[in-house]
Every structure is written in C-alpha cells, then in structure tokens.
Target: TetR family transcriptional regulator
Amino acid sequence: MAGREGPRPGGRSARVQASVHGAVQALMTRMERAEITIPMIAVEAGVTPSTIYRRWGDIQELLADVAVERLKPDMQPVDTGNGGKDLLAWAEQYAEEMSSKPGREMIRDVLAAQDGSGAYQCCNFTKQQIEVIAARAADRGEAFPEVDAVMDRVVSPIMYRILFGEAPDTAHVARLVSGAMGLVSKAPASV
Amino acid sequence: MAGREGPRPGGRSARVQASVHGAVQALMTRMERAEITIPMIAVEAGVTPSTIYRRWGDIQELLADVAVERLKPDMQPVDTGNGGKDLLAWAEQYAEEMSSKPGREMIRDVLAAQDGSGAYQCCNFTKQQIEVIAARAADRGEAFPEVDAVMDRVVSPIMYRILFGEAPDTAHVARLVSGAMGLVSKAPASV
Model:
C-alpha cells in the first residue's frame, strides 16, 4: 500500500493521501462510518473515485490506512525519571485511549482490512514507545525487561481485554506492569 | 441477538437459525465472503431476506454469529494427567487453530460486528476450557494458576501476536505456559 509506506512529503502522491485522509475524517464527524462510500470520499477530497480505488482497492483498506495514521503516537512516553513509572504511566494512557470509542473504532478498522500490514504497523508503533522507555531506563543504569516481554505481559492482556471483554481497570494495569517489572527485580513484584 | 442467546432446540426459530447458518457456510465454500449478500443467503436458506434483516440486522452481525458458533469448542481439553501439560497441549492447539486462515477469518468476523457480545462469548468459551483444565488439576491436588492469570499470561499474548504480528511459534507458547505455571511453583519456571 503506497499510503502506508509513506509517500515523499509534499509530492503529488502525499497531497492526494492527505486530502483523502482528511476527507474520511471530515465525513466521520458528520455520519456513521457504515454510510460512508468511496464516491462520497472522492467528492469531499476533490479527486476521482478511480484514484481512490487504484490506490486503496476498497473502503476497508482505506479506513484501515486512516486508522493506522491516527494511531501513530503523537508524543514520546512521559519521562518520570524511572523506567517502571514510565511504563505504568504509558500503559495507563494506552489502556484508556484504546478502550475509548474512537480507539475501539480505529482498532476495528485496522483489523477489518484483509491486508494485515496495518495491524503489524500498529504493533510496531507500540513497540517503539516501549523501546523509548527501555532506552531511557538503560541510560539511567536501571534494569528493564525485554521489549518483547513487555509486549506479552503488559500490552497483550490490555488489548485482549479491550477486544474480547472489558477494558482492564487501573489496578489491573498496575498489576500487569509490576509483574513485568518483577522479571528484572530480585525482590518480589509489589502490587 | 436471538441467535446468540440460543433459541429453543427444535423450535421454529432454531430451524431458521440452523438453515441460515448452514447457508452462510455453504456460500463461504463457493465464494469470497466479501461477495456474499443477504439476498443470496436468503435464497440458499429458503427464507425471505426480511427474516434475516429482522433477526440479525446486517451481514456483519450474521457473519459474527456464524463465527461464534464455529468457534465454540467441540471437545474437552486433552487430559494428559497433569495440569501444566494439559495447558501446554491446549495452548499449542489454540495457537494453531486461531492462526489458521479459517481461524483468522472467524476472529475477524467476530471483531467486525458492532455488537461486542460475540467477542465476549468467544472469550468465555476460552475461559471455560481453562476452567476444565484447572478443575482437573484441583481434583488431582495439583497447584494451578488462577484462570484470569492464564488469560493474561497465555491466551492474551497468543491472540495479540496472531492479530497484530506473527503467530507465536511452539517454543514461545511453551515459554508462556511455563511462565504461567511458574506463578504457583516454588521452583523457578523452566523454559
């Protein structure tokens, strides 16, 4: 998908993408996503429907592309001066954002696309945030678990519960984080 | 959703449901799911389209209902004589089935429905399987982790990786299981 690989900034392709993404987001504020069609998006974006079909194939892929773009983190994880606290602050915010109505809709759009590259990219955004926290912890000389272990122990249970049950409460998120941090501490994990 | 609450077996409602579910599954073997429409399903099932619209609302809800039905486990977890081994055998099979093409399609159908009750029911099917393993372990006098902890430590990472990345390999599944079992053993978890 050209859109996902990121077109050259400022080029014609980038302008088309920005315009189509903007059109989708504008339409979403005015109507239910199930009512939105590619011809409507084309009118709103000022491009031909065939431009959209050529580039995205179908509306599911386009919605997934827009959702991936919106799921891209727009800030670095908060720096609290301690790796475990950074991870807790990040995980609380992640659980809150992903379980919100727009968060759930974005995840659903990403997972509905046949092409799994959007879901893969979302997972990478999350990994990058954990890597930032891990690198800061390393700079401070603190022990911090492997990024992969944090994905399994903190990120996965939060996402599973949001998708298949009820969003985890803050006490649950705190237990997940302290469990992951317990991997690198000699002392038993505190709750 | 009447279909999900399970109509009285043998009643008219149950016969309609069975016929419509059968029609969806038959059509899925002959064409891409994206091509399947409610009028087609109605013809195949020998009911009117309005029967389907009245009962399921839209095709997403119907596909989710069919997927939930197919995701219902058709066997008890294998009894190996040991809780940890039961869990390992179950987790390996779960990872394999859910990461298969039909498994992924069923999960996608369940998650695509606006109504989240199908996803909730799938999570319950999984919990029930773990509960069977936990109850057998208790009968044998073995220590076994809380079902909720198994959901967080074993089920969630498997599902997260299937949805957002690559399916976990058997070594990874084994590490997840031994990590969860380590919660109740004094000895360090073996990998």
Q: What stands out?
A: Residues 2-57 of chain B form a domain with the Arc Repressor Mutant, subunit A fold (CATH 1.10.10). Chain B has two domains: 2-57, 72-181. Residues 187-191 of chain B have pLDDT under 50 and may be disordered. Chain B is about 70% helix and 0% strand.
